[in-house]
Specification:
Blueprint: H1 12-27, H2 34-41, H3 45-51, H4 55-81, H5 86-103, H6 105-112, H7 123-138, E1 146-148, H8 152-171, H9 182-193, E2 194-196, H10 229-244, H11 251-257, H12 262-268, H13 272-290, H14 302-319, H15 321-329, H16 339-354, E3 362-364, H17 368-386, H18 398-409, E4 410-412
Helix pairs in contact: 1-2, 1-6, 4-5, 4-7, 5-6, 5-9, 6-8, 8-9, 8-17, 10-11, 10-13, 10-15, 14-15, 14-17, 14-18, 15-17, 17-18
């Protein structure tokens, strides 16, 4: 009997890098303490500093190494499609992206899904990474009869749609692998990014208004503005999670920001998890009540309903960016233990759209993957604004998001 060859023992540095990737992708940057990382890597805390200056430098170095690997991967996609069609490029790009997620979901999440980002303290670097990826598509020399639209806004929407399945699978709310979804997703992205030469683009970038920029300070619903311990605790939780992630929302951090004692939290909520769940559910209830303020959301005409839904999503972010981020942008998500709520929200949305009347010659496509693409498109602009990649306010991009939403959900009748 011959012995199978043993895998070479990984270096301490590699074990530390794998540990930080795994922990950050599942718990966020706030959960990646030096003690937790070194314990997972099987080494002493002092050993980490033999390889990295500090934790922040380690996260940045690991992030850059993964980005270099990803850029090489996409450069290969562009190279093997040179001289071909843009549609084939998008199909290959989509398939390669999903296969890379299936091969190493934690590494993929570390650089592409985690929000707040691993390098959130370096907006310039975040922009450089975004522009590097976008330029690979924008610079593709396609056939004379077609064009690729890779403007910042179009690319931000397309990339969020591409990430949608990976987020759901990594969070445990959808079964994997993701690669079988490649063909359907590629079709959506082709409709968004590729057009016949001379035809108008589906998405255009509006000129930024004077003075536009990220909103500062917390913008909460009325029930979080009351001068009560409960309201202050909920507002503090929302702000910490939106800005620093779920793991950063410790009892001490929440109570300090709320200007109360740790014991006050337990007098109003059973525990921290109960507080997180309560904030999540009350924000959703608030949104359901607020939806009617953003246009005729009850119109049975599918196109009108979809357009109002898209505008409502962007207005909701502009009015309350922290609550929007808390529920829809934070990853790892607050809803990790709220799968029933997540499933209800999806089912409720599908039910609302199922009752609509599509335009003549069209049908409403509410297949699971298509509806997931629609949901991803709704939060793409808020996500890009939150990361500093696109100028706000979000409502400036209403027409672009409406066109994308209608293109996804309204399909020609078979």
């Amino acid at each position: 009997m011959t012995e199978s060859p043993k895998e070479p023992r990984k270096s301490t540095r590699d074990r530390i890098a794998e540990a930080v990737i795994r922990i950050v992708s599942r718990s966020g940057t706030a959960g990646a303490s030096v003690r937790r990382i070194t314990r997972a890597a099987g080494c002493n805390e002092s050993v980490l500093y033999d390889h990295f200056k500090n934790k922040a430098a380690m996260q940045r170095i690991v992030f850059d190494e993964l980005i270099d690997r990803r850029n090489t991967m996409y450069a290969s996609v562009v190279e093997r499609n040179t001289g071909g069609s843009a549609r084939d490029l998008i199909r290959d790009w989509t398939r390669t992206t999903l296969e890379s997620f299936d091969d190493d979901p934690d590494a993929f999440a570390f650089v592409g899904l985690t929000s707040p980002s691993v390098i959130a303290d370096d907006p310039k670097h975040v922009r450089e990474v975004f522009d590097q990826m976008r330029s690979q598509l924008a610079g593709f020399e396609t056939r004379p009869d077609e064009q690729i639209d890779a403007s910042p806004v179009a690319y931000a929407i397309a990339y969020k749609i591409l990430l949608g399945a990976a987020i759901e699978i990594h969070a445990g709310t959808k079964e994997g692998p993701s690669a079988p979804l490649a063909e359907e997703l590629a079709g959506i992205l082709i409709a968004l990014l590729v057009r016949p030469a001379g035809a108008p683009p589906l998405v255009t970038d509006p000129a930024p208004p004077i003075g536009a920029g990220p909103r500062q300070g917390i913008h909460c619903p009325e029930f979080m503005r009351e001068d009560s311990i409960r309201a202050r605790l909920m507002a503090a939780t929302t702000r910490i999670v939106a800005e620093r992630g779920v793991e950063a929302a410790t009892v001490r951090a929440i109570s300090n920001l709320a200007k109360c004692h740790d014991t006050d939290l337990y007098s109003k909520f059973r525990n921290k998890q109960s507080l997180l769940h309560t904030v999540h559910s009350e924000i959703l209830e608030h949104w359901y009540e607020m939806r009617s303020d953003f246009g005729n959301a009850g119109d049975p005409d599918a196109r009108v309903f979809i357009e109002n839904w898209a505008k409502g999503a962007l207005l909701a972010f502009d009015h309350e960016p922290e609550t929007f981020a808390y529920v829809l942008l934070t990853y790892p998500p607050v809803t990790e233990g709220l799968l029933d709520s997540h499933a209800f929200n999806i089912a409720n949305g599908i039910r609302l759209f199922s009752d609509l009347t599509p335009p003549p010659g069209h049908r409403i496509d509410l297949s699971p993957q298509n509806y997931l693409a629609f949901r991803s498109a709704m939060i793409a602009i808020p996500r890009a604004i939150n990361a500093g990649l696109v100028a706000g306010p979000a409502v400036r991009h209403t027409e672009a998001v409406q066109r994308v939403a209608c293109r996804i959900l309204l399909r020609p009748a078979d």
